[in-house]
Structures are given as structure tokens and as C-alpha cells.
Amino acid sequence: MTRIEGHPIVRKERGTPFTFTFDGKAISAYPGETIASALFAEGVRVFGHHPKDASPQGLFCANGQCSQCMVLADGFAVKACMTPAAPGQRVEPLDGLPRLPRIDRAPEPREPERKDVSVLILGGGPAGLSAAIELGSRGLDVLVVDDKDRLGGKLVLQTHRFFGSIDAVHAGTRGIDIAARLEGRVRELPSVDVWLDSTAVAVFSDGLVGILKGAVYALVKPRVLLVATGAREKSLVFKGNTLPGVYGAGAFQTLVNRDLVRAAERLFIVGGGNVGLIAGYHALQAGIHVVGLVEALPECGGYKVHRDKLARMGVPIYTSHTVLSANGTDGVESVTVAAVDKGFRPVPGTERSFACDTVLIAVGLDSVDEFHKAAAEFGLPVYAAGDAEEIAEASAAIFAGKIKGLEIARALEATADEVPAAWSRMSEILKSKPGPIVERSALDRYLEGDAGSVYPVLHCSQEIPCNPCTSVCPQRLIEIDETDLRRLPQFRGADARKACVGCERCVAICPGLAITLVDERGRGDPVVTVPFEFPSDRLTAEDRVVVLDDVGTPLGEVSVLEVKALAKNDRTALVKVRAPRDIAARIAGIRVQEPWTSQPLPEAVEPLGDDAIVCRCERVTAGEIRARIREGYRDMNEIKIVTRAGMGACGGKTCSALIQRLFREEGVALTDVTQNVRRPLFVEVPLGVLAGASSEAAGSRASAPARGKGAK
Length: 712
Description:
single chain, alpha/beta, FAD/NAD(P)-binding domain, 4 domains, seven-stranded mixed beta sheet, 17 helices, globular
């Protein structure tokens, strides 16, 4: 693992590095970096071992929601994903149960800090910040509490442009920039206080909320509580699901987009919702190979433009598939997947394995709603917004927070304004699921312009809330039904009095990278402008690139004419290629990952259970051989003598490779293992034949003389 330099979207000043130690080894870190991120950057994935079965433990959520990344920092058990690294810090793996640190003198007891406030907001993400803006702008005293070192919630992990309404929720703007805008507005409000690095721990029956404010415990008494705590990722049960290298999409985005740590070399994704699809795209931007994605449903549940964008980059997407196992010893070495039937049961014989070092789990979210439930039970006036209320997109959370802020202000009599009907309508639109997919034949009427002109091609074919393209066209040639921004955009083309001027603004702003521009005005083949959100120096004029259609089907190889990386396009480069007329309007993207990256292993890998037969001839189980390995055996000939594995008729042809795999699964390098001494003859031969008798007399029908180094 390494840190990411030259990310196409994220710019970061790291500061002056320092060192701490992990298990006695010096680890380099930067100010503000967590222990977990620093360890990952140094290639450390195993943070300790479970006290029950000594299984390796590492990162999973990177959000403080689990304890899998627990380590000892200067003698104290802490979550590596939430604890900043510090100069000179002594970090040790947590092997077994931690011992209580020795304290020479008991600390002096003190009363908790107390604070009364009109509105306490738990969570400084999109919903919490939007609510704080509505409340603070009306003069209400507000306290925003967040357990991270910065505001923005998951927005600070989102480097892509957002969908939705450009006016209502900053559509067309990157999540990281939306976070900065919302924080800036909150910081301008004098009645809004912010506690960072502070964790809400409980809601009590007397209406107090307990908060760990750094190292200080505080009790806050709000008149109204707003819970905007977001969501936690769901897990998935399969063999090897706790191996280091199996972790959630949020953890991955935290490492890659927030901390600029290349958290994997080869990534496999489980889950085809927006979270998994977007994480795959972020991985490619970070220079990580995305080996593939499986989705158990017949179609990905995320936006089709996200799915298509990933496919156009060269990532295989396997629908109606599931993960069977993550394979490895102290970390992921491969993943095994299989097709599923209509009952979501794996179909025997469809197993395939892919070499990878990371399995990203993106199978849905659960609301963090325990604070809301407790407050409601105790009669404390409470509201919920964002994912804490209902799982939806971040754009929906922004607007939900805005509405809840106004509702609370009205309840506290800070305003008489009611929630406008247009707000409620917009909220429902933003929360809506993706609409139906329109077949290409039905789109042709507005996909292309007139021959000899310049025109945009709109590659989106599914109704989702999104309108940035309509807002930036200077000629107003792209339209969406004004009553519902979920409708598909349409290019007016020849129906309009004005013509497209080829300004490329729609190409640059589209959140789904789903607009290209075809220019047929010059001589020769058309020139196609394609959005490109990877380091612009990866392509230069006269390069040859493979172009693909909407769903990732290769159309051919074309020449690059120009790469435009303009500041006004907000880090989206525009690549101009010259393409034959018959494919120009079908080009939707440029392949950035070669097909060989995603090839499966020759054979499917499945972890061997202890009762699995390794030596078919002598019926020796994996458990018997594992026991010998754990006793210290490192010579396969000794294992053969003790267990008879490899002593059967086949001469160890089948079981030798399996025994080697067991050594690897037990963490023993094959360089430390003495291999079996091969038999002089590789195929069994009747002794009578060796004695000079005829094969028929010896009872053999298929034997042949030995030759060279073995019978062939």
C-alpha cells in the first residue's frame, strides 16, 4: 500500500511527517491521519488477533461503528480508525484481551460539563448542516455534535458530482465541495456552535444527552433534539468475511478519498447499489484495479449511469451472482463467486475465483436511529433527518435537513413559515428510486442532431432526479419536463431556432459522465468530445484508445486529438477523439482498464474445511494435515509417513497441490516447505512388466514403459 499522489480530483497538503511505532516498527504518518490510515499506507492490514480463535483482525467500517480495528495505543485499547496518530505514540496489536493500564494515582473526580441549548443536532453531515443553517439563520442557538475531525459527514468522501436539482441541492457540484459550502454557511452563523471529535453516547430519561467531548464528558439539555447520525453499513456472511481486506465501501472511500491512501491493488466489489458502483469508480481514479463487481439481483440497484460509467471504464459486472468466499490466511488473496438461481441459491458448477487483495462489501445501509428511539421513548421532542430517518441519496439528505430545520424553527416559534409544498415535492423527488430504463430505439429521436452540425449525445436512459445539463446550456437546447426533474433530458436539435455552439459545458458538468459532443462540421470523420476524470497526463495527442458504448461494449480503437484540462471544468478533462461516422454518436467513454485485469483464476478457489478430503487415495482429511502443520511439520515427506497422504496409487498428483495450499492457508511460505520426493515412475506400472513379463500376462491393459523422467 502507498499514499496517493496526483489524484485527479482531490488536492491535499499533508504537512510535516512524523513517526510512531506499531509492534516495535517505525510507521510514518502525517498530521490529522488516523492510526488505521497510517498503518494501511505502510502495508499493515492485520491490527491484532481475536482472543477466542486467534483470527486476524483489521479494518472494517472505518467509521467507529465496530471494534474490529482495535489496537493498544500507549497502553490503552482504542479504535484505530478513529484515533489520530501522534508523534512517538507506541501502538501495539491487540492479541488477546487487553490488560488494564497501570494507573499510579486515581484521577480527581469532576462534574461533567453542562450546556443548555435550544436545538442539539447529532451529526454534522448533509442533513445536520442543512438543518443548522435553517435554524441558525433564524437566531436559534444550536449545537452541532460530530464524532469526526471535520464537518460534512460522508460528503467529504464523495469526489464525484451530485445528481438532483442544481438550485436546490447543488447538483453538478462534487460532494467534497458541497461539504465545504455547507460548513462555510454554518460557520458564518453566530448562534451555531460546533463540537468536533465528540461522540454522543446516550439519551437519558431526564432529557439529557451524554456526549464525550474529546476527553471530557458533557451533558447537554436540549429543548429539541435532531438526530442526523446517518447510517451504518450492512455486513454479509460468507466464508472468510472477517479476513483483513474485507471491509465496507465507506471504509474504502475514507482511506482513498479522505486520506489519499491507496487501500488496495486489486479490488473486488460485492453489491451493485450506488455505493458500490461509485466506490468502484473512485478506486479507478486512485489507480486501483477493479477486478469485478457482483450483484445478486438481475440488475444493479444503483443508477444506470453509475453502472454504465463503471462498465465503460472496463470493469466486468456480474448480475445474478453472489460471493461464496474470501480466501487467504492473514488477508485476502482471492475471492470466489458464483451465479445464483431465482431463489438466490448458488448454482453448482458456476464458481469462479479472482485474484484480489480487497473485497469491498456494499450491500446496503441501516439507519443509526437508536438516539431517536430513546428520545421518543423518554418524551424528549425529537426529529430525524437524512439516513437516520430514511436511507436515500445525500442530495435527499440535504433537502430533508432543510425541511426539518424549518419544522423545528416553527415548533420553537422562531418563525411562522410553513414548509412550502414545493419543498415537500422536491424532497419526494430526491428520495425516489431510479425509474424505468428506456430502450435505445425510443431515445433515438433526440440522441443525435443533424448531419454536418455539432450536437450533444445524451447517453442517460433511466429516469433519475438530475438537471445540471439543462442549467448550463447557453442556447437552452437541453430540456427536462419542468414539473418533474426525473424525466429524461431532451436535445431540441433541429426543432430549435438556435443551434448548438459546441461549448462543451454539458459534457463537463454531467454527474454521470453521460454526455458526449459530436462535431461533424469539419472535413473527414467527426470529432467526439468525451469527459475524462482521470489524471489528464495519462492521455496525450496521437494516443490510440479503445472507445465504448453506453454499456461498455468496445466500438473500436481511435486516435486522441486533444486533451483539455481547463480550470472552469472543475477537474473534468475533455478528451477529443476522431472516430468513424458510424460509431461517433455511440461513443460514451474511453476504456481505462485493460481486460486482462479482470480475468478469473484457472480454477475456482474454495477454502478447505477440516473434513474435506485432501488425499483421495488414502482418504486423508484437511484437518489431519492441518494438525501436523500446526505441530511444526514442514517436510511433506514426513507428513506422508505420518498420515499416508500422497502414498496412494496416483503418487501424490492430486493431493500435493492441496497440501501446499494448506501450508499457505496456515501462513507458511512454500519456500520453507520441503516438497515430496517424486516417485521414479509417474504412472503406476505392474511389477510383472518391470520383470519382463508381457503386459497381458501382468494383468495390465494400459501400462507403458517408463521413459525419461517419467512415463508419459
